[in-house]
Specification:
- With 70 residues, the chain is mainly alpha-helical.
């Protein structure tokens, strides 16, 4: 999964739930600036990041599948 795909999924999940990034930040115990930075910069999906908490808070999961043939 590309980082931009994950960020789009988070944005869509927030919109679908009528929540803001600030509300999500509070829910996962971080400050809004940290979350904004994570979602706007070229961050990777890394277990030391906030991604596990973000995915859990929004009831999302990472799915790994084989690439489509080119």
């Amino acid at each position: 999964m590309e980082p931009t795909d994950a960020k789009r999924a988070v944005a869509a999940a927030l919109a679908e739930r009528g929540r803001t990034q600030s509300e999500l930040a509070k829910l996962i115990g971080t400050n809004p600036g940290t979350l904004t930075k994570l979602l706007s910069e070229n961050q990777t999906l890394d277990s030391r990041s906030l991604w596990p908490q973000i995915l859990e808070a929004l009831d999302l999961e990472v799915v790994i599948r084989a690439k489509k043939p080119q």
